[in-house]
Design goal:
Elements lengths: L7 H4 L3 H12 L4 H8 L3 H22 L2 H11 L5 H17 L1
Helix pairs in contact: 3-4, 5-6
Amino acid sequence: MDKRNIPNWILSLDNEDIEFIKNFILKSGSLKEIAKLYEVSYPTVRLRLDRLIEKIKLNDSLENEEFIKFIKRLTIDDRISVEDAKLIIEKYKKERIEK
């Protein structure tokens, strides 16, 4: 996969989230096995998974916001650079998530 085509929801995750997803896949999605691996209770793992799901959903919903679409259109029309668009979008997302 070309690094430029990595979905934004993956890029928005921190290293701990990515490691959790990797372990989840390697354990065939067994929360019981993940609980053993992390030496925590099943409800703790379930809560972490639920939070990760919400983080991904939030990122997906932000991607569909009109402001982000507008910034992307400016890039397509060569009115702003791709680098500037990325900076603006990331700043916008960070502020939205912190609210």
